[in-house]
Amino acid sequence: HHVVINKLKKKNMKINWGTGIVIAIVAFISFIMFFVVTMTTSHNANHDLVTEEYYKAELGYQKEIDAEKNAQIAPTQIQLKNSPEGLLILFPEGYNDTNVTGTVSLYRPSNKNLDFDLPISLSDSHLLIPDNQLLDGRWDIKIFWKHEGKDFLHKESITF
Fold this sequence. Notes:
Blueprint: H1 2-41, H2 47-73, E1 79-83, E2 86-90, E3 100-107, E4 116-119, E5 126-130, E6 138-147, E7 150-159
Antiparallel strand pairs: 1-2, 2-5, 3-4, 3-6, 6-7
């Protein structure tokens, strides 16, 4: 009598193992299928838009990288100088108001509301950002300009 119960227990254990594994695999596959179907049919997970935006951003970064390289290999570099009137941006010789277009963007890491962009309008190859527009502290500056069909980008952090 005792032996028969033990045999049954052993048999049940074997069946339970196998069945357990099969059930686990089936459950796992069902979960994955459910997940895939939910993701593909759900409108919240509209990933097409995300990728389009991502590639746009990616192109933007590539343009920035190229423009930065152009600025680095230019024979003369832009210089930033603090002056009593404000921040002076000195363009290299040969740049003047007729052949340069672009923008200067100033970012304030500590306060987004202070960020601003200025169009580049040069008088004798330098640009002055008046003191009253710049609060003391750290500013990240991006100068993006076009000259003779080429894009240039200069990035710098300054403390004013």
